[in-house]
Design brief:
The complex is a heterodimer. By secondary structure, chain A is α+β, with helices and mostly antiparallel strands. Chain A is 36% helix and 39% strand. The longest helix of chain A is centred in the last third of the chain and has 14 residues. Chain A is globular. The two termini of chain A are 19 Å apart. The mean pLDDT of chain B is 94. The chains are: A alpha+beta, B alpha/beta.
């Protein structure tokens, strides 16, 4: 199973580091990252394998959202199936 | 591999355009609760509902987390209580309504539907007792929803039942007069009622349904409106395509959530209801879609044509996205629950007559319409009879949920809060249809050849 993690907010030092550290803390393996910075705004989409997650997925969603709040970012974590069903026949 | 544009489109739909799953509704059969002792019947009903739907709300929350999409309501629909309360009198049904409220409180759901009767051809003693109990039941409970089917295309129209419902609506308005006559917002009069509708207030668990079932209602007027805006000045064939594609995406999410909920709860998946269901929030309005299609304001000439096209395109797009479609499936046009409809009524551009015409081409009917409190019972019966006739003649579902707001008149507004929203009181014609209504009896079923 894979999760899509989206991170948006004002650019800052160490955003990717903080998010990836949190992922590794809970056993999420990052498969792909796409990121862009437009002026001072930062946007990143991460694809992570969550098969070896050490906590329930809903808790993982909450932890990342909390990390976002602490750093002035918006972090949303969603199961990849919602994107697959919507965009593929 | 997913592409970034697709991911951003989905996230934008949810965060900016109010895409959500409007309701996961669990249908529960109550046939095995029947008893000749009212107390035992109530106990069995309470036990069965709270046991069967025990994990409904938490499962809904988990799925919401997993896919990052809001699931606004978790609800329960039950076998029409007139079918399980054959031996009850009005007091017994009132007691049953309180039982249902208690079950809803225990489960943490916001509505329970099925305080209902099917009387399109005639009325059993129990159905009659149930209708007697409806006004008080709605006044004394918060989550219990009631519906009565008074006509079908095959059976015709039961005018005696319409008379009873006109009276029940007026009584419910009076009994809940301290709260904007909110009782009427939980009461629907139907023609050709669907048996698997997940939306309130008209949901119940029909006679041909399995023991338990999961039905899901999707939403997304904001997503459709934005897609039309982005499409710019295209012609109507292209516009229909834009709507179909959007409806497909919305419905796919509904199908995903429904399958997941059914699997987790160990309950069969029933249907997806394809309705575009608005809320009073800005950017979640069906009226604004019609305006985006090219109307200056909803209610203008051309509104019925826009709505017919929208409704058809939503169904065409949605049908392919789901394995089973049912319920009401179409665009809802409730006045109080749609910010654009409220604005159109306030500006005087949308009348009750235009709304009635619109219901001939979309899913439901005269929905959440507030009328003056001094509207007579006969006029309300006339409104119901007109709307029900549209359903019967066109072999479609129609319904009336009208609120004769006690003590209020044209120029006033009623406010119910939450998803039920607020509505300006609309003027109605006051000339009396009393002699027609009081004839009673049944309007024969319409002929279905010699079409014109």
């Amino acid at each position: 199973m894979k999760a899509v993690i989206t991170v948006t907010g004002r650019d800052n030092i160490g955003i990717i580091a903080r998010v990836s550290t949190e992922c590794s803390n809970y056993g999420a393996n990052i498969l792909d990252i796409s990121q862009s910075v437009m002026r001072e705004y930062f946007a990143m989409i991460m694809l992570a394998d969550i098969d070896a997650l050490t906590i329930p997925f809903s808790d993982f969603v909450d932890r990342l959202a909390a990390l976002g709040r602490e750093n002035g970012l918006e972090i949303h974590t969603m199961h990849e199936d919602i994107f697959n069903t919507m965009h593929r026949i | 591999m997913l592409n970034t544009a697709d991911i951003l489109e989905t996230i934008n739909m949810i965060r900016e355009e109010n895409l959500d799953i409007r309701t996961i509704t669990m249908g529960i059969s109550l046939y095995d609760c029947v008893s000749d002792d009212p107390a035992r019947l109530c106990d069995r009903v309470y036990d069965k509902i709270t046991r069967t739907a025990e994990h409904l709300v938490e499962t809904g929350r988990d799925i919401e987390k997993q896919y990052g999409i809001p699931i606004v309501n978790k609800r329960v629909s039950i076998t029409p209580v007139s079918l399980i309360g054959g031996c009850l009198d009005a007091d017994g049904f009132l007691r049953l309504a309180h039982t249902l409220q208690r079950a809803a409180d225990t489960l943490g759901i916001n509505f329970i539907g099925g305080f209902s009767a099917l009387v399109h051809k005639g009325m059993t003693r129990a159905s009659s007792a149930l209708i007697d109990a409806i006004p008080q039941a709605l006044a004394e409970t918060q989550c219990v929803c009631s519906s009565v089917n008074v006509a079908t295309t095959k059976a015709g129209i039961n005018m005696d039942a319409i008379r009873r419902m006109g009276s029940a609506i007026k009584q419910a308005a009076y009994l809940t007069r301290d709260n904007n006559s909110i009782g009427c917002a939980k009461l629907v009069v139907f023609a050709n009622v669907p048996e698997d509708n997940p939306f309130m207030a008209g949901a119940f668990h029909g006679v041909g349904e399995p023991e338990t079932v999961i039905n899901v209602g999707v939403s997304g007027p904001g997503v459709v409106a934005s897609a039309i805006r982005r499409a710019g000045d295209c012609d109507l064939s292209q516009l229909a395509d834009v709507i179909k594609k959007t409806a497909f995406k919305i419905t796919r999410v509904g199908q995903l959530v429904a399958s997941e909920a059914a699997a987790r709860l160990g309950v069969p998946f029933g249907i997806i209801d394809l309705s575009l269901a608005p809320t009073p929030a800005i950017g979640d309005s069906v009226a604004r879609i019609l305006e985006e299609m090219g109307l200056e304001v909803t209610g203008a000439h051309g509104t019925t044509a826009c709505l017919a096209m929208l409704n058809d395109a939503v169904k065409k797009g949605g049908v392919m996205a789901s394995s089973h479609v049912g319920g009401l499936s179409g665009a809802f046009i409730p006045v109080s629950e749609d910010e654009g409809m409220i604005a159109a009524v306030r500006s005087g551009d949308l009348s009750i007559e235009k709304l009635e015409a619109m219901t001939a081409v979309c899913s439901v009917g005269l929905d959440m319409i507030a009328v003056p409190g001094d509207t007579t019972e006969e006029v309300i019966c006339g409104i119901i009879a007109d709307e029900i006739s549209i359903g019967v003649a066109n072999t479609k579902t129609t319904a009336v949920r009208v609120i004769p707001a006690y003590g209020l008149g044209v120029g006033d507004e009623v406010s119910f809060g939450g998803l039920l929203g607020s509505a300006p009181i609309m003027p109605v014609r006051t000339a009396s249809p009393a002699r027609f209504i009081h004839r009673g009896g049944r309007v024969p079923a319409p002929i279905h050849s010699l079409k014109n």
